[in-house]
Amino acid sequence: MLKPQDILVLLRLVGESPEWSFQQLSNDLGMSASEVHQALKRAEMSGLYDPTKRRVLKRALLEFARHGLKYVFPAKRLPRSQGMPTAHSAAPLEDLLVADSDDCLVWPDPAGDRFGDAIEPLYRSAPGAATRNPKLYRRLALIDAIRAGRLREKELASRLLEEEFGG
């Protein structure tokens, strides 16, 4: 059975060359190398990762993100707080949608630069990993738009995620 950290690992690996190491991913994602290894084992069993080619099965991951993610890993709403923007409040969606300044979604973070309705990150280390990797941040924000957004946001996020994945 998939866990949220599995999706984080897969989002980090989409489109990467197979030259990565477990230790490198561990450092990038703020989890242990054994957690990364177990995540890829579960992703393989779920048909989202090919270990022989060391690559994410992009079509399968996109289909899961579009149709299953919000049911398996729903966005848990938290009280309004200071935080790091996500979903429609972060790039690339914030540049494409007109939103009320009070309509902000954030991951709670006292050092964050925005205030808004908070949602729990997909995985506890996701915000830290996102600050170190802008591409991963974009992907996580799109995933959050699918998990927590309105219909228009979900549809746009799905299309942009497909572009992120390279087709």
The biggest sheet, with number of strands, parallel, antiparallel or mixed sense and barrel status, is: 3 strands, mixed
How many helical stretches? 8
- Which overall shape is indicated by the principal axes computed on the Cα atoms? globular
The beta-strand count equals 5
Overall SS class: alpha+beta
Q: Low-confidence spans: pLDDT under 50, at least 5 residues?
A: none
User: What helical percentage do the residues reach?
Assistant: 40-55%
How much of the sequence lies in strands comes to 5-15%
How many angstroms does the end-to-end distance come to?
27 Å
- Overall pLDDT level: 95
- Order of helices and strands, N to C? HHHEEHHEEEHHH
- Radius of gyration using CA atoms only: 15 Å
Write the layout of secondary structure elements.
Layout: H1 4-13, H2 22-29, H3 33-45, E1 49-50, E2 55-56, H4 58-67, H5 69-72, E3 77-85, E4 105-108, E5 114-119, H6 126-132, H7 134-148, H8 151-164
Parallel strand pairs: 4-5
Antiparallel strand pairs: 1-2, 3-4, 3-5
Describe this protein's structure.
- The protein has eight helices and five strands, in the order H-H-H-E-E-H-H-E-E-E-H-H-H.
- The longest helix has 15 residues, at 134-148.
- Strands 3, 4 and 5 form a three-stranded mixed sheet that branches. Strands 1-2 form a two-stranded antiparallel sheet.
- A hairpin with a 4-residue loop joins strand 1 (49-50) and strand 2.
- The mean pLDDT is 95.
- By secondary structure, the protein is α+β, with helices and mostly antiparallel strands.
- The protein is globular.
